[in-house]
What does this fold into?
Amino acid sequence: DRTMTLSTASALRARINLSASARDSPALRRVGAARPSRRALRCPGSFPRTNNAFSVRRGRLGAARASAGAAAAEWVVEPSPADPSCPFDWWKDAVVYQIFPDRFAPDPAGHAPGISVDAWGSPPTIRSFQGGSLRGITANLDHIQSLGVNTLYTTPVFLSTANHRYHPSDFMKVDPMLGGEDAFRELVEACHARGMRFVLDGVFNHTGRGHWAFASLLDAQEQSPYADWFLPKSFPVVAYGVERYNVNYECWWDLPDLPKLNFNNEGVREHVLDVGAFWVREFGIDGWRLDYPIEIEPRFWKRFRDRCRAEKEGCVTVGELFGVKPNDVGEDGHFDSLMNYAFGTCAVGFVGGGVELRQDDAIGGDYHITPVDADGFRKAYGEVCRAYQSAHVPGVGRDARGTQNALGKGSAHPAMLMNLFDSHDTARALWMLRGDAEALKLLLLMQACVPGPPMTYQGTEVGQIGALGLDGSGRDPHNRQAFPWHESAAWDRNLLSHSKEVGRLRNELYALRRGGLRWCATRAVSANEGEPVDDTKLIAWERAFASSSDGAGAVCAFHSDKKRATSATLIDTGFGANVLVKAAFATKGVVLGSATDAEGRVSVTFPPQSGVVVVPA
It folds into this structure.
């Protein structure tokens, strides 16, 4: 194990790409500055009035906290109580499961006649198909929902020549190998019947070489009606038998099989806008995850979001954006949410016991893992949250159509960000953690206890590491092996049970979904009064509300040391003095006191790699 830790966030900030523009933006500098009155800004039901003295920035709970003798910590994330007037409010309660359709489950009725695919569970390759299908997903919704999942997100299902469908041949068709339009409609309807939502992956920066418009260009060359839909450098355009970096048309990452669309062409823009609305209207999807959107101008994505909202008011858009991008999300940005890999950078670094990964190890995007101790996590993750929170103004804003909604103004509230630590684009979490299932359990628990929807990549719950194991590469295609239905005896049943319990916890504890977040002080029982606990591997935070009428709070604490237990430790709870408490969730061996003391603190003893969520009894 590498034992290097960061007690400050300076190195980790570089890893999560908190750019100078984000750190120095006027929005970020607003922390502590005068803001419009909350009465003038608040959404109906979002910030109930209370007689207790309450400052959002200082988070004082008035008499209850004062009587406990504990000074309230500053809000890192402000509370975001449910608001029925907001059509996007459901996303803050989402528990997301990501599926790579070719590798999740085959059609129970078998493959279509004449189709040739690799055997299920074969070593994955870049080009191979294994025959996963949409009806295979529908047939296994019981398993998915048992994890506490209420939102399904699949990678693209477009007609395509590639197993991942990021090489689309037609944006308006479901690949027949996946079951076609009927199977897709059945899946979305089955999700809705269970009270689940469905988010579809859209890749619009480029097409595949087999796309009908690009085929027209190859056939008719400069005479093609669609010649300006792409970006040829010369004629004749040659797409086959050419090497990377020697292609005479613009393509994504200089890959000849991915010709880039020309978004300066109004026909391209209108076609993609029509595609966005089509899937919402015709199939009832609830949102889009938008692949690699950064090379398309932001104002287009605002139009895309507007077009989708016209079909379904609560349709969300989730951008695949790395780093910290408060200017890109929220009502004044161009996406409602983003894939918050910054959480994974911080959390994997905390639980990983010294694991350090470069970009090439983990992902082709801007995703790195650097070891951090508790102080490093607080500083780095706190800076991520504050970048969004400080730029967010609660209240009723207006979208591009002038329609009022309650997302607020400025940047997205942190509760809108989708938190993840792995995906089909990265090495699997268990590979990153070098097979340490206990570290993965702690990571899953931490993910459930921060603001923003948690996302799990298929197979994480049963312990998939990657097709080549720990000694081989964790990257694509090895992170995209088939879900092991054929090897269920080898599943990590303890991890599966833990995943289900964590999903249940997230759904049952309102505070974990909607409460604000502030750090909790910890002190060894044996330490002198006021002396902090000397444990760089222990961190605690509170998820709470400004008013008790919004709901009860919860205290979440995590000990990541792989070998050493803690002594009895006092954790500031904010529940008040002499309040009976219980563990809403605790890993094996955690010892929890029965009540808070006169200072509102609770005693907890942690075994190695353990965690607890404490609530009033």
